Amino acid sequence: MENRTLKEGESPGPVVLRLWPAAATPPVISGALWLWFGTHDTLLAMLLAAVPGILLLATGLSNLLWSADPRIFQFMSTGALLGMLLAFPFFFVVGPLAALALLIASAASFVAAGYLAVGQEPVAPEAPKPEMDFGLAARAAWDEVSMCGIVLTTAPLAVGRNATRIRREIDEALEMFEDRGWLDVPAIYHQTPPPLETMDRGTLIHAEAGFEHILFDSLYEPRQDDPGRKRWLSHERNRTAHAWVLRHPGEPRPWVVCLHGIRMGSPKLDLRHFRPDYLYHGLGLNLLFPILPTHGPRRVGLVSGDRVLSGDAMDSLHAGAQMAWDVRRLTRWLRISQNAPSVGLLGNSLGGYSAALLSCLDDNVDCVVVGSPATDPTRLFWQNALSLSTRYLKAEGVREEDTARLLRPVSPLAMVPLVGHDRRAIFAGVADRVVPPIEAVSLWRHWQQPRIAWYRGTHRGFLRIPEGRAVLEETLRAAKILPGSR
Known about the structure:
486 residues, alpha/beta, Rossmann fold, 2 domains, 47% helix, globular
């Protein structure tokens, strides 16, 4: 695959692949086939064919005729996946040969969607070029389906009167933040949280032996004059902080704080993602899993993680500030109440962003390791949000640059980490389509090029891949959280 390299400071944009014409045609053909078969038989056939047919034909033609917007491939891969699934009931409607043809066409479109999605993402000079094959293209397409799910379950809050309010709040906040110096020295925006003295036992359970659910009053409040303060405080469930705990009996041990990604925040998802068999049993570490604001039992909408990447700038800022507040209270609790000899941070995706931000604010942290860090949530929103939201914001005069400037107080790219250079590390997949590699490169540059590991994979790797485990263990040893040799 031939990719143009991305120069430092250059914005991502589409590139031309060597096999682009061949890869671009399966979705068009597949979509046309679905619609053709759907209109030549029964009403049931039409209903089954409508969604995959429309999605594949629309995204296929969009990719051929216009600049490749990242959202095209999210819906292309979703349409192809639906096509593969619906081909089986279609067997009983139009017969085996037609169903088989649709299954093959949809599968080819799925692989093509992943191939095209990776190919349109420029490769930064510091990142390896993704050498594509059918397997990696299919895994990239799964990432695109995941992003489509995230986008479709994010309520379009930045529309109508809300867009007008968002514009007003951004203007008010930028003026106030500028006057108070928070944009020039973002770290001083953050208030010092009080010690965590009272903690309760929660009711959620997990099969892992020794699992505990703890909760406490967050006590976080946005600054008195912050726009959106009253709205943020109205989210009652979010005002109670939650965490899962896995700790060994006996003498104090090092702790690793595990920060989850978007849409997570349940014991089942979080523990499976952070592999207790490896971290807790294998490495012998105590583990703490804070629940990020608006996630899991703290959710404020129908799905976990509402308002974090919704386009509502002040909500995004308060979510980042509250995350830092809550976790700083927890790391101090680990030091004082649990006699933790050392504390490390481990985050993935949105949790990678959170860990990177905390490394600039929390002096209780000894090391930080981030996987596929979503270090620039502003860019991710503007690239992936439904045009229903971005059009309203643009019509109100909201620019991506304004939002990015407002969010400097919660941007790890705007602050200097307190953790030493040899105790911070990054790993990321070269074909990640949820958090593109440029996000990891941006943090690597800002962190003055610490250790980084690239693996030939997508967003789903994390602690399942040897490159991630190797860089984690090397960093834990540098922080003396693990012995010098194993």
